[in-house]
Amino acid sequence: MTEESQLLARADEVLPNIIHLLPIAARPFFPGQGVPLLMDARHWAPTLKAIRESNSDLIGLVLTADDEAEKTTTKAMYRVGTVGRIHKVHEVDGQLQVLVECLQRFRIEKYISANSPYIARVDYLREPSGKLTKDIKA
Fold first, then answer.
1. What are the residue boundaries of the structural domains of the chain, listed by start?
2. Is 18 helix (H, G, I), strand (E, B) or coil?
3. 16-124: what fold?
């Protein structure tokens, strides 16, 4: 094997540039986190169904400035989010319990669908590497 054939692909080289988005009102999420989400099944089930139908298990988590994610618009969504892999979806009493593994930060380049289910073209951000500075640690 050559050294070139042993190189690993970067996450941004294999992640799709068009993804479904899920606005989150509570707090932002970062790569490396496992996130349990609880959301209204009636409102967000179509988004999860669209993801399944696209043969994907990836979703973009985007913080919204609105107090309720169900009432948000693309204008209230922050431009940087985190793509995550959906590991488990379970519905209980009209609520979806979704377990997501956060993978990579992205920047929204363009909205393809400005209504739910939201879809966007994204560009993945490279994580800082090298010496840990005060700014990177913060």
1. 16-124
2. strand
3. 2.30.130
CB-CB contact of 61 with 47 (8 Å): no
Specify burial of residue 97 (Cβ count, 10 A radius: 0-12, 13-18, 19+): middle
- Cβ atoms of residues 15 and 103 within 8 Å: yes
CA dihedral (6, 12, 16, 22) in degrees, to 10, reads: 140
> Residue 29 corresponds to which tokens in the numbers above?
């999420």
**94-98-103 Cα angle (round to 5):** 155
How far is 106 from 85, CA to CA, in rounded Å? 14
Prediction pTM value: 0.81
Please report where in the chains the tokens 């393809």 appear, as a residue: 112
Q: Compute the residue count for the chain.
A: 138
- Condensed to tens digits (0 to 9), the pLDDT of residues 1-51 reads 445 545 555 544 589 999 999 999 988 899 999 999 999 999 999 999 999
